[in-house]
Sequence to fold (376 residues):
Amino acid sequence: MSLYSRKNPFPAPLLVNRKLTLEGSEKDTRHYEFSLEGSGLAYEVGDSLGVLPANDPALVQDILDALGCSGEESVPGNDGAPKRLREALLRDYQITQPSKQFIQAVAERAGDAGLFLREMLDPLRKADLEKYLWGMEYIDFLQAHHSIGFTPGEFVKLLRKLQPRLYSIASSQKAFPEQVHLTVATVVYQSHGRQRKGVASTYLAQRAEKGTPVFIHSAKGFRLPEDGDVSIIMIGPGTGVAPFRAYLQDRKASGAKGRNWLFFGEQRSACDFLYRDELEAMRAAGVLNRLDTAFSRDQAHKIYVQHRMAEAGPELWKWLEEGAHLFVCGDAERMAKDVDAQLLEIVRKEGGKTPEGANEYVENLKKQKRYKRDVY
Ligand SMILES: Cc1cc2nc3c(=O)[nH]c(=O)nc-3n(C[C@H](O)[C@H](O)[C@H](O)COP(=O)(O)OP(=O)(O)OC[C@H]3O[C@@H](n4cnc5c(N)ncnc54)[C@H](O)[C@@H]3O)c2cc1C
Ligand SMILES: NC(=O)c1ccc[n+]([C@@H]2O[C@H](COP(=O)([O-])OP(=O)(O)OC[C@H]3O[C@@H](n4cnc5c(N)ncnc54)[C@H](OP(=O)(O)O)[C@@H]3O)[C@@H](O)[C@H]2O)c1
Fold:
């Protein structure tokens, strides 16, 4: 049993921060390795790592400037104990996407300029407010409405606690007993004339500390089949490949006999083929029995993992009928839905079923814990 948990994260030394995407990529996706030595932390493949980030010091400075503060002012930290404002903004509070209470306070205090916001706060206009707030941060309101004059204490009271972010673990302790690896896409985007940075992914890329606070988040619903003879089909485009790197390491180390089939997708084969060498080595070693790739931007029309699934429909159906487990990891909003629809279509076509029959078959896979998803 480890001393460390979500409430008491382990300060893990960062050993490796390596860019996986190459020149020509539109992404900055990185491979991280942390040491768990001395922590007693244990994880299973399929679990996630919680990372408690710190905010961007440059953004903290911009907020201090907009508030007219030095940062030395005393405010309650998120545990209620007094703290310097700069430190509280760095480590205790979420200082990017604004809270509803903050928007309400701005609307009330900004006089005529707040009228628009007051209208948007009408419960009937919830969707409009969400649309308006997409890509807006605290700093935009503080800079636009100098007159609101929040004191440090008032401002901090309107903030939410800074939350940890979860990342699928990309390693197996059978291969790396004292380490945990991650695959993270750095979130950076432009909105309202400013460059925005995802808190945890840019913290990892640029500012991860000697001791990055981490904890294990167990995912019992995303485990490998206990029986190593069972075949698995893994669908993991983008950073969704992370847990499958861990699965392959695990099955290699345990000498599991079950077959392993991976569908991987990204934008361009030349610069976005994450872990290409490792996957090809796994293939050569006979651990990865089949690797189907879908590079969406290597040709004029989009090719996604679900298109490769369709092409391999008869074989995929055969694997399922032989008892394979199917795993999906990555983007929840679009990919996981389309993959689910494709799975239903394969079951309908290859299994000669009605749409209802296909639904029933897939529901059964879920009940038998043979269709598992970890999507975000
Ligand atoms: C179980 C689980 C496993 C995960 N595994 C992984 C993984 O292996 N690898 C990985 O990279 N991620 C993974 N994630 C996602 C990860 O937890 C973070 O959500 C992600 O890294 C972004 O966090 P951040 O702190 O960098 O960004 P945040 O500071 O949280 O910013 C993200 C927010 O920025 C806003 N935003 C983003 N893009 C735009 C845009 N273009 N325009 C306007 N607003 C925008 C949105 O409000 C969005 O919610 C996983 C999530 C879960 C729940
Ligand atoms: N909610 C969103 O709108 C959105 C958008 C992008 C990323 N994200 C999030 O950003 C994070 C990192 O993303 P990532 O870099 O891992 O990879 P990703 O954005 O999921 O992209 C990986 C691959 O999936 C393709 N793809 C796009 N739509 C798809 C669909 N409907 N079905 C199947 N494949 C599809 C992409 O193609 P193309 O890029 O060529 O379309 C790309 O080739 C994840 O948290 C993801 O959820 C969210």
